[in-house]
Each structure stands twice: as structure tokens, then as C-alpha cells.
Write a structure and sequence with these properties.
The complex is a heterodimer of chains A (267) and B (194). With 267 residues, chain A is an alpha/beta fold. Chain A contains nine helices and eleven strands. In chain A, the strands form two sheets. Chain A has a six-stranded mixed sheet, covered by helices on one side. Chain B is built from eight helices and seven strands. Classes of the chains: A alpha/beta (267), B alpha/beta (194).
């Protein structure tokens, strides 16, 4: 069956929900206020947070189209681990705790729904052919960091996948880059499930508008992070997860950060 | 500067060189990573392998780099200090006053005299149905004095050289001919910094 390609002028794109229902609700409300015609999520619905199952009704209620992330793929099949792509023992320690919790707190119905998610989505945004994925178009758990992803690789991925705009997440840190004199773009939309490692608890998503030239706006959203942190603590998840939500500084799963990005954080 | 990782034993670092590296790193849009190899977290055990005084010089280098915001990564093999290798090196870095300790533990690669003892190679059967794109050499390239290699472990070995200067040849597939290739195949080892 041919892939359905919808056409839009203004969209909201978010990534990395990480079971943070409080943040997701605030972001979806914000996107609606800003007249987004459609909302897309680039995957990883679980992880870190206390409410995996509370995320699903929010996504359905708002008609969010979702791309499968590595976490979603793993949870759907109850795989041995999250396939997050970590190699550091400390990162893997916290990833194992988070993943086991998420699998245990995701219903069978929601796991079945995760199994139906597409690996990629394509839309038309004004004059642009947009490709959405989780990590990269070639690997679901590839980390496309701003400081390690060369222009040449982005151009190659866009050409190989017949796209003008590449949207991804997985790193949890947002960035954007114009290529080919503005004719092409790569945007990592960051994450809404945990803050930006910048010392504020707010979370971020991206608004993309074809005017018709592409305007990419990263939007910061304040939400009830204290409620999310209390839930994390109440369910016995590591206190480091709650600390990150409250302080905005990453405390876990940060050993994989490149030097540039690691240098910006507190830990 | 492209995203670059420098591998060093950290024994000849000077203040001037550290300053130059910092200028390069902070002036580039991409990350400059500096990996410093040690064999043990204590001076005696390290220097038995690497030579007297190397631990002192290497740890001084770690401080010099850290003071300039370069966030060095200590690299060691997993047999260096047993299962506690990772924790011991993190503790060492913390004791040196490094606030963001970064440690990469590598598996043991059969190179040098160990190749003969290993006596194993990847076979067609090993690679049947195996996704070769998961191997580090599918993407990694190492620029050395005499050409381009697909693997830092095998840099300098004639059989591992992809190109002596022609870019197109450097992008070709790597031959999985060496005993060290078995290690990546079996362990999922990666050239990534973490």
C-alpha cells in the first residue's frame, strides 16, 4: 500500500516523552494555542518517568501521529533491554532500571499499539519533503548530536531518502541546521520528557512553519515538574530521575554526551 | 575542524599544547575528544606496563586538559583491573579533582603477539545474516601517517589499509581479516567515545 503523505503549513513536532505525562499535556496544549495544524511525536514514549500508560490517551486525544522509537520497539516486544545505544556502565545501570519499570507499567493493549507504529513518517510541509524518524533514517538508535554530526552526513541522508527536511530526536537535545543554502534542513527536536540539561526544568518542542521558506522555532514549555518528580519518587524510581526534573540538569544517562554537549551541563 | 577524536598516552603534553588544543576545540563547531590511555588507576601497576613516570605525566595531562574544559576520556581495557576497572578509573578522576569523569572501557583485542595465541578469524558462517553495518569499521575511518584505515586497532597494518590518499578508496568496505575483528563481532565493541 502506498505511504500516506499529508500536506501541512505549520506543524508541532516533539520527541522523547519518557513517560512524562505532565510535560506532554502541557506541550500539546501549547501547540494547540500556537495553531499547529498537526502534531507529530518522534518516539520513545517510555523511560525515566512514572506514568507510561498515561501518555497513550493524551496522544490519541490530540490525534498525534507517532514514529516508533527504540524504546517503543523494545517495550512492544518486551525485549531484553531498551536498545538505547548506551555503552557506558553507568548509563546502562540507570537505563536498565528505567526500562524494567516501563515494561512493567505499560499495559498489554498499549504494548500492542506500540508494535503498530511506523519507523518513519513522511509529510509535505509547504514546498518541503519532510522525513521524520527517531534516531536517524538509517538506525533507530543513532545519536545525531549537534557537535558530532557533519553536514556531509546530513546531506547524504537527505539525498538517500529523497527528503529536504530531516526531523529526529533520540539525543534529548535540540538543534537545527540549514543546508544547501537553506534548501534543506536537519532538525533534532529534543525531548519533552526531560529538560534540556540547561538548569531550568522547562521542556522543548519544535514548531515548523512553511512561509514558504522554512521557519523552525524551538518552544520552551513550563509545566508541573514538581508533580512529575513526586510521582517518580513515590514509585521508587531513582532519586536522580526526580532531581533532573526539578533542577533541569541531567544526572543520569549522560556519559554518552560528546565533549561539547557534556561541557554545558553541571554533571 | 571536523568532529575529531585524538588518541594519546598523555606523556608529552605541555601547557602550550593544551592551550592550543583548547583554542581549537572551543573555536570549532564540532567536538574535539581526547582519549588518554592508562593501564591501571594506580601509578605502580600502570608504570609496570607503560614505563616509570608515565602515570605521573599522564595524570598531569588529565588535569591540564580538564582545567581548559576539554573533558578528557580515560581509556583502559577491561582486564586492566578486573571487573572494577570502570569504577576505579572514575574514582581516580574524581580524586584528581575532575568534576566530569569520563571513562571508556574497551575489550581486549588480540593484536601484536596475542594474534597468534588467539588463532581465530571471522568466517563466512559467522557473517551469515549478520548486519555488518553494526561494526565500527562500517563508518569509522582513521587517518594515520601512511594512509587511511578502517580501524584504530589495526592502524599501521598493511592488510587493514584502505587507501594511501585516495578518498574514494577510503570509503570502501573493510576486510574483516584480523583476529581483532572477531572481538568487535562478538562483543559489539564500538569506536564511539561512550
Amino acid at each position: 500500500m502506498p505511504e500516506r503523505v499529508s500536506e501541512h503549513r505549520r506543524i508541532a513536532v516533539l520527541g522523547g516523552v519518557y513517560a512524562n505525562a505532565e510535560a506532554l499535556a502541557a506541550v500539546l496544549a501549547d501547540g494547540r494555542r500556537r495553531d499547529a495544524e498537526a502534531v507529530f511525536c518522534l518516539g520513545d514514549l517510555g523511560g525515566f518517568g512514572a506514568h507510561p500508560d498515561r501518555v497513550f490517551p493524551l496522544l490519541r486525544q490530540h490525534g498525534v501521529r507517532v514514529v516508533r522509537g527504540n524504546y517503543d520497539e523494545a517495550v512492544a516486544s518486551a525485549a531484553a533491554d531498551c536498545n538505547c545505544g548506551y555503552t557506558d556502565p553507568r548509563d546502562n545501570h540507570y537505563a536498565r532500571i528505567s526500562y524494567a519499570y516501563t515494561v512493567a507499567h505499560t499495559s498489554a493493549a498499549n504494548r500492542a499499539w506500540l508494535a503498530t507504529l511506523p519507523g518513519h513518517l513522511r509529510i509535505i510541509l509547504g514546498p518541503y519533503r519532510v522525513l521524520m524518524c527517531h534516531g536517524s533514517p538509517r538506525r533507530i538508535n543513532e545519536f545525531l548530536w549537534e557537535s558530532t554530526t557533519p553536514d556531509g552526513l546530513l546531506r547524504r541522508l537527505l539525498a538517500e531518502h529523497a527528503a529536504d527536511v530531516l526531523l529526529c530526536t533520540h539525543t534529548g537535545l535540540k538543534w537545527r541546521r540549514a543546508l544547501n543554502g537553506g534548501a534543506a534542513h536537519a532538525v533534532n527536536v529534543g525531548a519533552v520528557g526531560r529538560p534540556e540539561n540547561d538548569g531550568t526544568p522547562d521542556v522543548w518542542y519544535a514548531l515548523l512553519t512553511a512561509e514558504p521558506e522554512l521557519n523552525v522555532e524551538f518552544v520552551s514549555v513550563a509545566y508541573d515538574y514538581e508533580a512529575a518528580a513526586r510521582a517518580v519518587q513515590a514509585d521508587g524510581l531513582p532519586p536522580e530521575f526526580a532531581e533532573t526534573l526539578r533542577t533541569g540538569w541531567w544526572t543520569t544517562c549522560l556519559e554518552n554526551l560528546p565533549a561539547r554537549e557534556r561541557g554545558r551541563g553541571r554533571f | 575542524m571536523a568532529a575529531t577524536t585524538v588518541l594519546t598516552n598523555g606523556t608529552v603534553m605541555t601547557d602550550a599544547l593544551a592551550d592550543a588544543l583548547a583554542r581549537l576545540a572551543h573555536g570549532s563547531r564540532y567536538s574535539l575528544e581526547i582519549r588518554l590511555s592508562l593501564d591501571a588507576a594506580d601509578a605502580d601497576a600502570n608504570d609496570r606496563v607503560r614505563g616509570r613516570g608515565t602515570w605521573e605525566r599522564a595524570t598531569r595531562t588529565l588535569r591540564l586538559l580538564d582545567a581548559r574544559g576539554l573533558l578528557p576520556i580515560v581509556t583502559a581495557t577491561e582486564i586492566a583491573e578486573g571487573a572494577a576497572t570502570y569504577d576505579r578509573f572514575r574514582a581516580l578522576l574524581s580524586a584528581l579533582g575532575i568534576a566530569k569523569p569520563r571513562v571508556k572501557i574497551l575489550p581486549v583485542f588480540p593484536v601484536g603477539r596475542a594474534v597468534g595465541a588467539a588463532g581465530i578469524r571471522l568466517t563466512d558462517a559467522d557473517l551469515e545474516g549478520f548486519d555488518r553495518s553494526t561494526l565500527p569499521c562500517a563508518e569509522t575511518r582513521v587517518v594515520a601517517a601512511d594512509g587511511v584505515y578502517a580501524c584504530p586497532i589495526l592502524a599501521g597494518l598493511p592488510g587493514a589499509r584502505l587507501s594511501d590518499g585516495v578518498l574514494a578508496a577510503a570509503l570502501g568496505p573493510a576486510a574483516l581479516y584480523h583476529a581483532a575483528c572477531v572481538t568487535c563481532h562478538r562483543t559489539g565493541a564500538t569506536c564511539r567515545n561512550a
